[in-house]
Amino acid sequence: MFDDQSLDAALQRIDEWERSATQRAEQAQELARRAAQISATARSRDGLVEVTVGPEGQIQRLHLDDRIRQQPAAETADQIMATLRSAQGRLVRQFDEVTAETVGADSETGRMLMDSLRKRLGTGAEPA
After folding, report:
1. Cβ(123)–Cβ(92) under 8 Å?
2. 30/22 Cα distance (integer angstroms)
3. Which Gene3D superfamilies does the entry link to (predicted)?
4. Which of 65, 96, 98, 118 is the 20 to 30 Å CA partner of 89?
5. Measured distance CA(75)–CA(26) in Å, rounded
C-alpha cells in the first residue's frame, strides 16, 4: 500500500501537524495568560473622571475628583460613560496587540477573539 518513501512522507506530515498543534496550544495559553492581565485607564479631558477597566472591559476603578460636585449630575454621568468607552477602546487596542503577538491577528482564533471582545464591549467590528 505504501512504499518506504510515501510512508516516510506521511509520518513527516503527521509530525509536522503535531508540532503545529502543540505550538498553537502554547500560543493560545500565552494569549490567555497575557489577556487576563490587561487593564486600561482613561481620564476625562478636564481630569475630573478617571476609569480603569479590567480584561473583560469591566470597571475596576472609578475615581471622581472632588471638583465634580460643581457640575450637574447628568454631565458627570456623561463624562463617566465617555471615559469608560475610551478606556475600553484602549483595552481593545491592547488586546489586539497581545493577540497579534501570540496567535496572530490574522489567524482564525485571533479574529474570533478580537471580534468577540469588540462585540461584548459594543465597540464594533473594526479595531478601535
Report:
1. yes
2. 12
3. Nucleoid-associated protein YbaB-like domain (3.30.1310.10)
4. 65
5. 47
